Amino acid sequence: MKKKITPYLLVSPYIIHFLVFVAFPVGFSIYLTFNDWNIISPMKFIGLSNYKRLFNDAIFWKSVFNTLIFLMIHIPLQIIIALFLAELLNQKIKLRGFFRGAFFLPVIVSGVVVTILWQQLYGYDTGLLNRLLIKIGLGKVGWLTDPSWAMPSIAVMATWKNVGLYIVLFLVGLQTVPLQYYEAADLEGATHIQKFFKITLPLINPTIFMVVVLSTIGGFSLFIEPYVMTGGGPLNSTISAVLYIYKQGFFYYHMGYAATLGFFFALIILSVVIMQKKFVEKDK
Amino acid sequence: MKLRKYFFYIFLGIGALTFLYPFIWMISASLAPENEIGNLIFLPSTISFGSFFQMFDKIPIGRAFLNSMLVSSSVTIGVLIFGSMVGYALSRLEFRGRDLIFYIIIFTMTLPFQITLIPQYILIVRFGWVDTYWGLIIPYLMNSLGIIMFRQYFKTIPQDLIDAARIDGCNELQIIFRILWPNSIPALVTVGIITFMASWNEVLWPLIVIRDEKLMTMPQLVTLFAVGGRAESQLGVKLAAATILALPIVIAYFFFQKYFIQSMASSGMKE
Predict the structure, then answer these.
(1) B123 and chain A: CB distance < 8 Å anywhere?
(2) In B, residues 133-192, which contact A (CB 8 Å cutoff)?
(3) Tens digits of per-residue pLDDT, A132-147?
(4) Cβ burial, residue A96 (10 Å; 0-12/13-18/19+)
């Protein structure tokens, strides 16, 4: 008898925690999407109004669009830089530990630190980047104040912060490629570039897929970067999914609408990730 | 051949500079007199701790450091204890519903947090946990990734070890904490580092559940300081706050770099 209940005792804290902090919130979140509620006054059932509002909400669509812009810059940049530096680290070189450690440093530091730091680098008048541009004879750029530059600037910063992790993951991937493949290619007189595209790239496809998925989730989770740097501006050009949920929920206390946004963003994330997965599987 | 090597080092050097220089600049600027920051390239002409003193004056950063330590340590200890309990049950015990629990864990891992953010906040309000440590700690006590990692690791431990412990009269908890733990140091370190880092760097959740400045975590306090007007557009003070916030993790990273990189890489792999 005792034997039979021990497993359940061991997992019971997890189950209770799951029911309270995962299962109930998911159910309640869906329920909230049909209601208007500011937490204090009684909940008001409003049917599908939140959904109607969402489809007509220009800021919601803007936040989806902003995330797409972010991903279109962030993902390719991240894959190219990470692959390039991982490929270099995979050669017989000295100081590999130092280089790897340096590339990885931004990964471990809080996003707040990175954001405050880059806000200064991107500064209009005294920012390091603009000072550099002036020195080489170009004009200043409103990195964070020009609506068409602001989101790309955040995407570049996010790449700088995360790319170290992907360098390490690619490095692991590169080291699983059997050396015989390269030796065989050498015998046939393949060039470095050919070897890279014909052998390395196909074999590290799973890692690339992972970078794409993690970046997608990351893009829809952007919060602290626009919160600190731009507040979502200029002209909502950097408003992100989570920042918009946060504003609706904890600024205006539109709990029902904020839950609807959260629900929809979750659906978008899941469908994008599933689509990416399908895409990769079809490739094989 | 030789020439190519030089190119490798040049590119790697540029890479290292790109990742390190902004941090060097940040530390220099936080130690520079305020009027020099606008032109600062590398090192300030004189070192001044003025920005740090001003920052200590304006925000309770010491208290925030202790809050962060308390919250992140509690979360990490909880995740290690509960994670190994569930990981052990899933990998070593037979019981009905085991697969179901495994699927629940996978489901939780893939669930985007955007959907639970609002209702979780409402729960915290209902439990009366706004402006308490409980609100910061309890929701994070379980971690699906941690459970999965313990489950994987415990599978590699020989059954003989567990059988021998049972014959010696150990109960299941003793088996986990006295027999498995000493043999699972890599898993403990990995889960510990990932959990501690994630908790230490979390900003959104503290911003939502903590309004009282005395209870704020370090990144939260620094964030509000940078966003609100209290830094009074003094760059040096902002950068001093960012430097202080980065310091504890960077020091830990300096000593345990290998473990940090391995842990973070394995967490990326699992997802």
Answers:
(1) yes
(2) 138-139, 141-142, 147, 172
(3) 898 888 888 889 999 9
(4) middle
Q: For residues A112 and B242, is the Cβ–Cβ distance under 8 A? A: yes
Domain assignment of residue A259, given as a range: 58-283
Backbone angles phi, psi at A45, to 5 degrees: -75, 125
Asked if pLDDT for residue A114 goes beyond 90, the answer is yes
Quote ipTM for the complex. 0.90
CATH, residue B107? 1.10.3720.10
The token pair at B262 is 């391995």
Low-confidence residues of chain B, pLDDT below 50? 271
Are A121 and A131 contacting, i.e. CB atoms less than 8 angstroms apart? no
Highest mean pLDDT among A10-14, A180-184, A227-231: A10-14
Q: Count Cβ–Cβ pairs < 8 Å, chain A vs chain B.
A: 252
Same domain? For B40 and B76 the reply is no
In chain A, residues with a C-beta closer than 8 Å to the C-beta of B111 are 22, 26, 266
Partner A contacted by B39 (CB < 8 A) = yes
pLDDT of residue A124 exceeding 70: yes
